[in-house]
Amino acid sequence: MKREYEKEEVNKGLKLLIKSSIIVFIAIILSKIFNYLYRIIIARYFGPEVYGLFSISLVIVGWFVAFSLLGFDEGIIRYLSFYRGRNEQNKIRYLFRFSSRILFFSLLIASGVLFSFSDFISNIIFHNSDLSYIFKMYSLIIPFWGFYLYFLSIIRSFEKIKQLSLIDNILKYFFKLILIILFLVIGLETNAVFFSFFLGTILISISAFFYCKFKIPNLFLRYKLNKKIQKEVSGSFISYSWPALFSSLILILPYWIDSMAIGFFKSVKEVGLYNAIIPITLLLNITPEIFLRLFFPMVTKEYASKNLKFIKSISQKIGKWSFMINLPIFFLIILFSDTIILILFGPDYTLASNSLKFLIIGVFFSSIFTISNNLLSMAGKSKILLYDVIITSIISVILNLVLIPLPYVFGIDNSLGIMGAAVATTISFLVFNLLVIIQVNYYVSVNPLRKDMISIFISALISLLIAFSLNKILEPSVFSFVIITLTFFLVYVLLLFLSKSFDKEEVMIFTFFKRRLIHTVY
């Protein structure tokens, strides 16, 4: 009876994840469309140099926002979810007021520092005076950007996944896309790129604030806590948050290091080329993002109740699904790297094709084991995550300093420096995920790898061989790319069923997913 009850609880959790994942899936697809259109307009209309200026400016401002957040965006998710699991409303209200006050001053200081040092960063580090004006303008949106991320974390901790997806995935990119088109129509030219991001960030920040204000009003009520408990809550929150400063950035931090190193050793044009392949690799982050929006607050609540069997079971399922979905995408990006870059960004960016093939390896492994990162955060091991990030960041910096200036990396032309950056990031991702897998297995006794992943890999490999053969026969074109891709997925799905890669629970969950998707769409 107990085993049946535990199985039923896991199925309920999976169904809840699937239910929220459908909304997230639709939102992410729309966000990718808007985001790619936004970036494609910049890349194709203005060329690699302006795209490089835009990319570097986002990296630098992103650093300032990350530091000034103090890890509070990660800490607030864990502690609000934890206190919700125990129904401790006064602690929730106090923590919100405490953290938001500190963030206000921290973000203002960061804004002032960037504005003051804009000339130094642009001229001395990147040797490009055009960046100074952009840095000064973007320094003004640091408070908006920071509080936007903070309020998103609050929405996520309350498991408002539908609303979170609407704000973070749809409105964020929709505002920027509409604004850049509007500014181009009225003739702003290059300024359209930077003004659209500036105003879009302000609008989305205001949207997130008003949602919290009117839909989670409990946050803004007065709290009743004695001084001793306040000190305990704030102390444990800060102790958890500051090591988590970089853990939320682990998927994007190596790219930032790459862009800065390329900008230092090469030019903004090369930064533009490299940042054209990053959105392509981030396609592999769609699958974990779909599930992890709800996964982290859900397992944190269960961890507060010490329901470890539930956590282990649901973690392994999501790990398997991420592997199953991302493996064919990984193979296809390697096979059609030139064609994908050409379709999205144009012929000027196909020089980055070899770099994409290397970079996608690290991103693939990172996408599979992102769940382990979340499990360490769930268990409160933020300091261990901090050490992991520091180790891999040092490795990334050293490899970038060594590989980017080299003319050849692995026998491939590296005159642009972007091949060296791709190899550095791939190695950094592999090292980080190896560390996290070992630590999660030790602290939580969860291993996201399963035996049935072998049959999934064989199915994908056979499908790849068929696609590779067709690619040799057919003339290269967009039409042949579509035909080969469709053939690949048809063979892959057929082989998954023939190899019995799905268990009974998964068939039930997929049936539920299909019904919910049809219901949501129609």
Principal-axes geometry comes out as globular
Structural class by sheet pairing and helices = mainly alpha
Q: What's the arrangement of strands in the largest beta sheet?
A: 1-2
How far apart the termini lie comes to: 39 Å
Quaternary state of this entry equals single chain
SSE run? HHHHHHHHHHHHHHHHEEHHHH
Count of β-strands? 2
What is the percentage of strand-forming residues?
under 5%
Radius of gyration, in Å, reads 23 Å
Main beta-sheet annotation: 2 strands, antiparallel
Total count of helical runs of at least 4 residues: 20
The overall pLDDT, averaged over residues, is 85
Helix content: over 70%
Contiguous uncertain segments of 5+ residues? none
Question: What's the topology here?
Answer:
Layout: H1 2-69, H2 72-85, H3 89-116, H4 118-125, H5 130-139, H6 142-157, H7 161-185, H8 191-215, H9 227-241, H10 253-265, H11 268-281, H12 286-304, H13 308-335, H14 337-345, H15 353-378, H16 382-403, E1 408-409, E2 412-413, H17 418-443, H18 453-473, H19 478-498, H20 504-521
Antiparallel strand pairs: 1-2
Features:
globular, 2 strands, 522 residues, mainly alpha, two-stranded antiparallel ribbon
Entry summary:
The protein has 522 residues and is mainly α.
What does this protein structure show overall?
- The chain is mainly α.
- Helix content is 82%, strand content 1%.
- It has helices at residues 2-69, 72-85, 89-116, 118-125, 130-139, 142-157, 161-185, 191-215, 227-241, 253-265, 268-281, 286-304, 308-335, 337-345, 353-378, 382-403, 418-443, 453-473, 478-498, 504-521; strands spanning 408-409, 412-413.
- A two-stranded antiparallel sheet has the order 1-2.
- A hairpin with a 2-residue loop joins β1 (408-409) and β2 (412-413).
- α1 (2-69) crosses α13 (308-335).
- It is globular.
- The two termini are 39 Å apart.
- The mean pLDDT is 85.
